[in-house]
Amino acid sequence: MEQPAVTHAMTVDVEDYYQVAAFFDVVKPEDWEQWPSRVETNTDRLLMLFDEAGIKITFFILGWVAERHPELVKRIQAEGHEIASHGYSHQLIYTQTPEVFREETARSKQILEDITGTAVTGYRAASYSITRQSLWALDILAELGFTWDSSIFPTRHDNYGIPGSPEEPYRIITRSGAELTEFPLTTAKVMGQAVPAAGGGYFRQYPYVLSRWLFQKASDGGRKPQIFYLHPWEIDPEQPRIPNASWFSRFRHYTNLHRCLPRLERMIEDFPFGTMSESLGTVTLNKTLDLREFDTKKAA
């Protein structure tokens, strides 16, 4: 297919298979150490793929993982990829207090900066959990020195989403008057509805031809940069199975794991990708969302 003219953002949320929201009710953070880790091996497979493709991408790294696998963080950095924060313990922000969120986010940022020796200015929330109930988190991100965020999904979902929020990169003025750049997750308008097209479980569940069509549609034929994301565990069909998880959680997590890597290879061939910062560098921010004026009760 014809290559789009813009650079899209390829992103990886670096977390292990037992840390996902789908298993929150059966695998508690205090039990994570009991599970065999596969995050390093799977992330190294992705690093090899991106090296062969000749692209640099953005890795949003969980602080808990970075703390235990500092050499993995150093390899990601050494290969020229961008490093951003994915928080510390992968908890849904709207279930945390502002005090706990501030402590964990500051801790995660410091861990990554100590390992890399460079400032970490980008952030993505666990399970995109900056929603109307947790917009206060954006003030804390700004206080801690983050300048851009990629946590808001402009769609409806049972765990996340702010439907009706801007679908292109935009400025956010927080309730304290600070400013952040938001790069929202990709959605495509189909019959007036914002259909998720950013990757992850959607990418595994949709046929590849549909994923490609939605991504191309969202990009307006290659004129608007978009975000693609996935997790290291999504290319690992041999990962241990979590017992006692609900059928729906198993469906979300395990569907088409064996198809994800070859589909990712096709995605990289079909669209030009780079880091979040490279992609944002091609954008003129035409919209501003001022949270001091944002009425959460009226938002649909």
Task: Provide structural commentary.
This protein is α/β, with parallel strands linked by helices. It has one domain: Alpha-Beta Barrel (TIM Barrel). Helix content is 34%, strand content 15%. It has ten helices and twelve strands. The strands form three sheets. Strands 1, 2, 3, 10 and 11 form a five-stranded parallel sheet that branches. Helix 1 (39-53) links the parallel strand 1 and strand 2. The chain starts with 7 loop residues before the first strand and ends in a 10-residue tail after the last strand. The relative contact order is 0.19.
Structure at a glance:
The chain is an alpha/beta fold. The chain is built from ten helices and twelve strands.
Task: Give descriptors for this structure.
single chain; 300 residues; alpha/beta; TIM Barrel; five-stranded parallel β-sheet; five-stranded mixed β-sheet; 10 helices; 12 strands; 34% helix; globular; disordered C terminus
Count the domains.
1
Strand content: 5-15%
Total number of helical segments?
Answer: 10
**Number of E-type strands:** 12
Mean pLDDT over all positions: 94
Structural class: alpha/beta
Envelope shape: globular
* Name of the CATH architecture: Alpha-Beta Barrel
| CATH topology description | TIM Barrel
Radius of gyration: 18 Å
CATH class categorisation: Alpha Beta
Cα distance spanning the termini: 37 Å
The helical percent reads 25-40%
Largest sheet: 5 strands, parallel
Q: CATH superfamily assignment?
A: Glycoside hydrolase/deacetylase
H and E string = EHEHHEHEHEEEEEHHEHHEHE
Poorly predicted parts = 296-300
